[in-house]
């Protein structure tokens, strides 16, 4: 094993442009910088060979040639400062202090890996060291780093957040939303671009017509450029910027000019660039530049040679140790998907004066903001405007800095919640309409839902995304959708849909306290619904359905506002001698299978009623449960009552025909009772 590209320092330095004059950093620091760069270089070379030898499965993206940016950018960071990385993130992790042996084990998919073999090359993370994760989605670390910057700002501890990204990520909407939000909030964030001049297979000039310097002006943030192959230049720039950010300065974009020697991925034939281009960049090898820096500081070349030998031995030992780690036990397959809910019994609420669902939302948020300093609320118009429905009115004045207005940037809002949660906060963010979930689906589907699993449980994701829906008032096809099936199909997300004011209060407080990411879906047609106010400490456990009305003839499973229609239908058919048992599911995912099956065992008939369209919905999952595990209890086919699979109509006449009501449900109950006998 040898240090690729740095074998003949004198020849390479003579052929390339000379390094800039030695800066103010002392020799011992530059020596250590060189050691860390060699560690990255040899780690990456070894990873390449291990991949070629099939010891590393999956994809591998290497950062050979970019060592100086990683080491220089992280040099002045504390353990509690945060970084996010890219799919090419091994160097960042090593520069921030991650254990090499554990990283090799992670690449090999071993239990002793950084993430217990659950993340692999593209998803290494350890929030305990401020490493909030490499990421397989281009640009996805940028919303997360804004969240980490928000956490540091709220704590006021001088923390700094650095988000690494490549030049290709600039084309992502996530880049725009993140930089803009950081600028609006004056967050202590460095957006650090490692410009290696290629976006996968495409040249930089084919991807954008405006450079980062121009973009920075548009966002109203500072811009700095640096020679990304000179670790001392990078470290000196970051020393100044980190100091400024710790003192309260706002965000900055740094563009480091560098180059990756290998292809986009290991195995890439690299047909998109000329060999002469790579050869020219190798003359500015970051290790060669660093050796020249050491020579200027009077450090003998033997010191660097000795480091090369020491790190070679370190890498060999780390690989041997990683190989001794076992593979994960298949019996542990489901580990780290969720934090299991506790067995706190449900409380019987004391009944106070009448309040509304909208009051329940505000009072639940107020309680948690008052009692937990890690809780904050953010979203479009939730601060000064108090939410489009007035749900958060007055909270911004009462909790300054912890109830925040955001730009219209759902990806930055939800992605920021992910980063803030990983940094130890409990964010409650709002997506104004459930229909807008698609705009920020990556932050939910690939980040919030998966990061605990992919980090082997190291990442904590206690966050709530509040949103609302509701058909029946001619809101049209883009403001009426009930999309819980889409969310429930994403393992790792908890999805909650309350049905009345008391449920809203108790479930929202439990959602905020949950260690899992929760999507909390309110129905806007119920914001004015009234009920007796529960006691202030009222909590409802997540994942537990409730029997709202007992009965012996047929079970109806439902949730959210449809519960009121089901109860009305049950009252109507009770006059005809049909006793309906009504189950309010409450938590859609993970749902309470035991309560549904137990009710089915008693009644032997099942109806499922929901506001979402029928096809491929949550109702189909419950029907499958009845067919698979409750088959011998069934005396009749399972019946689903739901809208037809089509966009929500706008015209009141069409919407009424499309959306089932209590009359449709009552007719379904009557028909079902005519089928079969006990």
TrEMBL record:
InterPro entries: DH_E1, THDP-binding, Transketo_C/PFOR_II, Transketolase-like_Pyr-bd, Transketolase_C. Its cofactor is thiamine diphosphate. Transmembrane segments: none annotated. SMART domains: Transket_pyr. Its EC number is 2.3.1.61. Residues 1-25 are annotated as: Disordered. Residues 12-25 have a biased composition (Low complexity). Keywords: Oxidoreductase, Thiamine pyrophosphate, Tricarboxylic acid cycle. It holds the Pfam family Transketolase_C. SUPFAM superfamilies: Thiamin diphosphate-binding fold (THDP-binding) (SSF52518), TK C-terminal domain-like (SSF52922). It comes from the Bacteria. The keyword Oxidoreductase applies. GO terms for molecular function: dihydrolipoyllysine-residue succinyltransferase activity; magnesium ion binding; oxoglutarate dehydrogenase (succinyl-transferring) activity. It is an enzyme of class 2 (transferase). GO terms for biological process: tricarboxylic acid cycle. It catalyses: N(6)-[(R)-lipoyl]-L-lysyl-[protein] + 2-oxoglutarate + H(+) = N(6)-[(R)-S(8)-succinyldihydrolipoyl]-L-lysyl-[protein] + CO2. This is dihydrolipoyllysine-residue succinyltransferase. Residues 355-529 form the Transketolase-like pyrimidine-binding domain.
